């Protein structure tokens, strides 16, 4: 396969990935695996090595495995042709972490109390605080047998700050052992959490996945490009005018995979899509809210009031092979959220 063919096929692969067509992705990757003779020049000119490298963290295990195989194979091929300069070989001075990057990553912890993020009113809020409705839903769920399918268990963690949330205030306390990466995860968490109704673990999970995927895009090096990319993503997530983007990422409507390849324009257009989704979601809650099928559970922690008294139902909102979406309603404050 020559350079032009590789570039062409790479485009098809990108398209298949964005459309989440698993069999097409696997087919194209197999072509890469079978028909590409990896050279340093080819990988450099087409960027295909980095692109395939990204797929190592693809949620589909077959795709991730094939990506790992290809990277391994190409790495060996390149190293054999030029052992001194593999494009994959990590830099040896990895113990010196650069921190002079526009203050994005600082070795010292930032005093967060001085940076107050004002919690905005999320418009399109579908919850109407109504204790009688909550009681109604509660009594319905008590009379019903619980749903047979069990949602993923959320950790029992306390949200101390009700409203104005951040990594520090939520007491997340997660570390990769690398200060640069930790800072990025913290900032991602802050940008996703500050006005979120979702529990800690869902948000942390998203922040971790985004960071990991970007790290993989830059071949495991938390250096300048990695920080630039994440800085751009974080500033878009924090955008007060675009709550739809961060809500979509937290709820899973925008997959981490997709978010990591979105352009600025695509991120901007998410606001409208999110509003459409919220109307749909509000209708779903309404349709199911008075029904007898909601199960009561203490498995979910409300991101608004911190209580664990919730009802939930699960529904297939996308294609049949996708995981179910879980819709949760807090009985105490009537906060509603969903995740998949
Ligand atoms: Zn609540």
From TrEMBL:
GO CC annotations on file: nucleus
GO biological process: regulation of mRNA 3'-end processing; transcription antitermination; transcription elongation by RNA polymerase I; transcription elongation by RNA polymerase II
Domain TFIIS N-terminal: 4-81
Pfam family, one: TFIIS_M
Start-end of Polar residues biased regions: 81-96
Annotated coiled-coil segments of the chain: none
Highest rank taxon of the organism: Eukaryota
Localization per record: Nucleus
InterPro entries: TF_IIS-typ (IPR035100), TFIIS/CRSP70_N_sub (IPR003617), TFIIS/LEDGF_dom_sf (IPR035441), TFIIS_cen_dom (IPR003618), TFIIS_cen_dom_sf (IPR036575), TFIIS_N (IPR017923), TFSII (IPR006289), Znf_TFIIS (IPR001222)
Positions with biased composition (Basic and acidic residues): 113-122, 153-171
Gene3D superfamilies assigned to the protein according to its UniProt record, in alphabetical order: 2.20.25.10, Conserved domain common to transcription factors TFIIS, elongin A, CRSP70 (1.20.930.10), Transcription elongation factor S-II, central domain (1.10.472.30)
Keyword field: DNA-binding, Elongation factor, Metal-binding, Nucleus, Protein biosynthesis, Transcription, Transcription regulation, Zinc, Zinc-finger
PANTHER family cross-referenced by the UniProt entry: IP08861P-RELATED, TRANSCRIPTION FACTOR S-II ZINC FINGER DOMAIN-CONTAINING PROTEIN
Family, similarity comment: Belongs to the TFS-II family.
Protein name: Transcription elongation factor
Taxonomic source organism: Rhizophagus irregularis
